[in-house]
């Protein structure tokens, strides 16, 4: 564990939490640097990096100001901002900056290439000099502009005597540009402007692809969020009713919670009786009946009738907030993961640099002179450009993420795909994950087709959760709606209407009855329609598919009832019930200690810490906001199969990435001896570089067909 | 060779035109909402009945 080191005892109760966005976090090394560096500051209790959000959470003494921490981060080589400023706009700005740089690099590359082709085809004398001067005029500003993302990152690192992947890139580009400028001034034969700009272009393509994938998944997930209890209708003593956001709710306020709404704060029920779905909070599948005087928790959903709740605890003090704190701590294990490109870069960069140094030294000894030796060393640097590292991984991952998105699975970033490919055990939550997480009627057979049609019309005109479940089930079974007139909905009671002169209704039955149900009445005859949370239809197929991939499944549920054993029997996998969020976390720690790489699939708030701690995690689209934010991927729709598909596609992606690496290394094995021997001209460098990049991209595009294949 | 005096500025100018068009498009928010733009075409022109 690289848990932050506590240098001196700091009163935990006095600590305040601050968050900072740090857009420069690119690799595992950065995380270690920041966490160690910030934790060592006197007055800081803990510092934690959230890699996917490029954010740092610091718990510190109130005497330490935000500005101090920003300065400390700058000393570590990272630009940081306190979180209060809109974080989404900042991320967006980074993508825009990269896109602009890419456009400039593309423009410069095309024009310089045009001039270079003329030089390669034999232009010499004054024409060649003119074209070289023109190339320089285009390349120098273009490199200065398009190289900024790499230079600033490398400069920040170097200034504080650290290193990252942008350092070798910047050295290569700057050396090539500087050497070429010198060549132009002295009327030399070879200028590598085309190579330098092309290198920037390909690397920027990789960076842009990476950024676009993150943005796309983020906006997809953002569109799923915000349906939970983010606020409440508050009744003021003067009779006014206003919408109040969750963070502004204060104890003592009275919230009016309609059926189907989630509670935004903990409180005591003042008026009304209802059943509450606590599955998000505890994993229990059976709704709990509550009346005046009972406690209702934030994050639970009111299922039956409107209630008024007097708030006792809001925002930071609710039961949800405890889970959130647990989750914050659980998230750090994942940041230790080193992405495959960074692992490759650790081997690649030193090898390339020593090769270049070696050829310089070799040619100096052979007596070629400083100028000639330097030219050859630069040719080696250009020909071994880390295009494969910059392009091979993002190209494959973006193609895979795009294919998965078509099947309803949003992957948050490339590292999630890498970790997904490594998963070897799966843990499922029960309620909301193996089940649909919303009530569906189970006794529809008792109704005649005509009654079904009437019930469909009645239920369609209501927003009540049971009505919505009934309408969806009836539509799925192909029921045609029958016209019902004079439909009238009374909150807390149900729907009434007239069908061919007969009174028909869908009403709330007696609350004393077990479970969820509605009473359907036509004339004098009454039928009770029972509701239960049903299994996802392809749950068994998905578990079997995962098992065939070598990923055995198990159930961990917060539900203490027999329903867990039923699930174990139904799916034929082991199950544990009655687990608190901390228990789930402990189970994951235990499995990690034995070397298992766990894929966690869960939806509730109670799964949040487990989702954050697991090697990789997936949440359904109906999950709570926190769970969707904690998970690496989100799948939408009623099918569970995208989970198995994701694992399969992730493994194929990693195979493609490894193929890409192998091709890049193979190409270098061929090209480096030629470069070291001094036979590489700017033309050979340009052709070799673009060929290798094209091959890598083409190989990645093949993935799209493979990923689209459902089998 | 004299043709170059015209052709090179023309080539650069056209490239620069494309580049500035792209910058303008980015600054004026053309790429802010790609999917939204695709959906917008389906919106009915009159405001009545649009949910």
From TrEMBL, chain A:
InterPro entries named among the record's database cross-references: ATPase_P-typ_cyto_dom_N (IPR023299), ATPase_P-typ_P_site (IPR018303), ATPase_P-typ_TM_dom_sf (IPR023298), ATPase_P-typ_transduc_dom_A_sf (IPR008250), ATPase_P-type_domA (IPR059000), HAD-like_sf (IPR036412), HAD_sf (IPR023214), Heavy-metal-associated_CS (IPR017969)
Organism: Croceicoccus ponticola
Domain HMA: start-end pairs: 16-81
Membrane topology summary: Multi-pass membrane protein
GO cellular-component term (any): plasma membrane
GO MF: ATP binding; ATP hydrolysis activity; copper ion binding; P-type divalent copper transporter activity
Similarity annotation: Belongs to the cation transport ATPase (P-type) (TC 3.A.3) family. Type IB subfamily.
The protein, known as: Cadmium-translocating P-type ATPase
EC number: 3.6.3.3
Keywords: ATP-binding, Cell membrane, Hydrolase, Ion transport, Magnesium, Membrane, Metal-binding, Nucleotide-binding, Phosphoprotein, Translocase, Transmembrane, Transmembrane helix, Transport
Main location: membrane
Transmembrane intervals: 97-118, 130-147, 167-185, 191-209, 347-368, 374-404, 661-680, 686-704
Matching SUPFAM superfamilies: Calcium ATPase, transduction domain A, Calcium ATPase, transmembrane domain M, HAD-like, HMA, heavy metal-associated domain
GO biological process: copper ion homeostasis
EC class of the enzyme, as a word: hydrolase
Compartments it resides in: Cell membrane
TrEMBL record, chain B:
Keywords: Membrane, Transmembrane, Transmembrane helix
UniProt xrefs under InterPro entries: Cyt_oxidase_maturation_cbb3 (IPR004714)
Regions that span the bilayer: 6-25
NCBIfam families: ccoS (TIGR00847)
Official protein name in the record: Cbb3-type cytochrome oxidase assembly protein CcoS
């Amino acid at each position: 564990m690289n848990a932050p080191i506590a240098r001196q005892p700091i009163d935990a109760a006095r600590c305040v939490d601050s968050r900072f966005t740090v857009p420069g976090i690119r690799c595992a090394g950065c995380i270690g640097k920041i966490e160690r560096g910030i934790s060592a500051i006197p007055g800081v209790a803990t510092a934690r990096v959230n890699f996917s959000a490029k954010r740092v959470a610091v718990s510190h003494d109130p005497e330490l100001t935000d500005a101090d921490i920003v300065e400390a981060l700058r000393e570590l080589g990272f630009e940081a901002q306190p979180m209060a400023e809109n974080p989404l706009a900042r991320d967006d700005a980074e993508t825009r900056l990269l896109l602009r740089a890419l456009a400039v690099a593309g423009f410069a590359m095309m024009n310089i290439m045009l001039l270079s082709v003329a030089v390669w085809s034999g232009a010499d004398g004054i024409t060649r000099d003119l074209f070289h001067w023109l190339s320089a005029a285009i390349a120098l500003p273009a490199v200065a502009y398009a190289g900024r993302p790499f230079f600033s990152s490398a400069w920040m690192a170097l200034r504080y005597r650290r290193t990252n992947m942008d350092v070798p890139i910047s050295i290569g580009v700057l050396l090539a540009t500087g050497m070429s400028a010198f060549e132009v001034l002295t009327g030399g034969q070879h200028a590598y402007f085309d190579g330098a700009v092309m290198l920037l272009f390909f690397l920027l393509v990789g960076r842009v692809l990476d950024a676009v994938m993150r943005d796309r998944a983020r906006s997809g997930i953002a569109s799923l969020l915000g349906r939970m209890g983010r606020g409440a209708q508050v009744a003021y003593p003067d009779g006014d009713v206003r919408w109040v956001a969750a963070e502004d709710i204060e104890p003592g306020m009275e919230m009016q919670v309609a059926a189907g709404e989630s509670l935004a704060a903990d409180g005591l029920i003042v008026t009304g009786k209802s059943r509450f779905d606590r599955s998000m909070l505890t994993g229990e599948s059976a709704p709990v009946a509550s009346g005046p005087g009972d406690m209702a928790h934030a994050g639970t959903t009111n299922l039956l009738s409107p209630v008024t709740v007097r708030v006792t605890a809001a925002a930071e003090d609710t039961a949800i907030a405890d889970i959130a704190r647990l989750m914050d701590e659980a998230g750090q294990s994942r940041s230790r993961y080193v992405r495959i490109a960074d692992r490759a870069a650790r081997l690649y960069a030193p090898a390339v640099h020593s090769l270049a140094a070696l050829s310089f030294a070799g040619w100096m000894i052979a007596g070629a002179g400083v100028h000639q030796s330097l030219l050859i060393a630069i040719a080696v640097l250009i020909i071994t450009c880390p295009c494969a590292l910059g392009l091979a991984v993002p190209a494959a991952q973006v193609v895979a993420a795009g294919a998965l998105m078509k099947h309803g699975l949003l992957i948050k970033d490339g590292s999630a795909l890498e970790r997904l490919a490594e998963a070897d055990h799966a843990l499922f939550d029960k309620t909301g994950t193996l089940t649909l997480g919303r009530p569906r009627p189970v006794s529809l057979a008792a109704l005649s087709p005509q009654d079904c049609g009437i019930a469909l019309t009645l239920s369609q005109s209501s927003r009540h959760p049971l009505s919505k479940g009934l309408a969806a089930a009836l539509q799925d079974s192909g029921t045609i709606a029958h016209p019902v007139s004079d439909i009238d909905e009374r909150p807390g009671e149900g729907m009434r209407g007239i069908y061919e002169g007969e009174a028909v209704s869908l009403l709330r039955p007696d609350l004393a009855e077990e479970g969820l149900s509605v009473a359907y009445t036509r004339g004098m005859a009454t039928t009770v329609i029972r509701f239960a949370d049903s299994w996802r239809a392809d749950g068994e197929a998905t578990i079997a598919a995962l098992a065939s991939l070598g990923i055995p499944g198990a159930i961990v549920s917060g539900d203490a009832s027999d329903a867990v054993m039923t699930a174990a029997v139904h799916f034929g996998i082991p199950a544990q019930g009655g687990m608190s969020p901390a228990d789930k976390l402990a189970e994951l720690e235990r499995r990690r200690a034995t070397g298992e790489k766990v894929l966690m699939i869960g939806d509730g708030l109670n799964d949040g810490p487990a989702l954050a701690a697991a090697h990789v995690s997936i949440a359904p689209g109906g999950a709570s906001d926190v769970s969707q934010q904690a998970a690496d991927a989100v799948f939408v729709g009623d099918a569970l199969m995208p989970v198995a598909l994701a694992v399969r596609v992730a493994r194929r992606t990693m195979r493609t990435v490894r193929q890409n690496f192998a091709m890049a290394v193979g190409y270098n094995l061929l090209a480096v001896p030629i470069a070291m021997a001094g036979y590489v001209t700017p033309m050979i460098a340009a052709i070799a570089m673009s060929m290798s990049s094209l091959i890598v991209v083409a190989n990645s595009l093949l993935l799209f067909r493979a990923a689209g294949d459902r089998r | 060779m004299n043709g170059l005096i015209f052709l090179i500025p023309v080539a650069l100018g056209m490239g620069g035109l494309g580049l500035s068009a792209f910058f303008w498009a980015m600054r004026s928010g053309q790429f802010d909402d790609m999917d939204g733009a695709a959906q917008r075409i389906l919106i009915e022109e009159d405001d009545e009945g649009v949910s």
